[in-house]
Amino acid sequence: MTGAAAEPPARPRRLTVLPLVALIFYDVSGGPFGIEDSVRAGGGALLPLLGFLVLPALWSLPEALVTAELASAFPTNGGYVAWVSAAFGPAAAFLVGFTKWASGTLDNALYPVLFLDYLRSGGLVLPPPLRSLAVLCLTAALTYLNFRGLHLVGLSALALTAFSLSPFLALAVLAVPKIRPSRWLALNAGAVDPRGFFNSMFWNLNYWDKASTLAGEVEDPRKTFPKAVFGAVGLVVGAYLIPLLAGTGALPSDTAAEWTSGFFSEVGQRIGGPWLRVWIQAAAAMSNMGLFEAEMSSDSFQLLGMAEMGLIPAIFARRSRHGTPTYGILCSATGVVMLSFMTFQEIIEILNFLYGLGMLAVFAAFVKLRFKDPDLPRPYRIPLGAKGAAAMCVPPVALITTVMCLASARTVAVSAAVAVVEVALYYGVEHAKRRAWVEFLAPVPPAENSHGSALVPDAAGDVEDVRTGLLADEPADEGVSKVE
Question: Of 474, 455, 453, which Cα lies nearest the Cα of 465?
Answer without folding.
Answer: 455
